[in-house]
Amino acid sequence: MRRARKKLTLVAGARPNFMKIAPIIRELKKHQDVFDWALVHTGQHYDHGMSEVFFQELGIPEPNFHMGAGGGSHAEQTARVMIGFEKYCLEHHPDLVLVVGDVNSTLACSIVAKKLNIQVAHVEAGLRSGDMSMPEEINRMVTDAISDYFFVTEPSGEKNLKREGHRPEKIHFVGHVMIDNLFFQVEQLKQMDASVFATNALKQQLGRYGVVTLHRPSNVDDETALRGIAGALIDIARDLPLIFAIHPRTAHTIEKFGIVFPDTIVCTAPLPYMEFLNLWKDAALVLTDSGGLQEETTALGVPCLTLRENTERPITIEEGTNVLVGRDPARIIAEAAKALRATKRGTRKGPRLWDGKASARIIQVLIG
Ligand code: UD1
Question: What number is the average pLDDT over the span 277-289?
Answer without folding.
Answer: 98
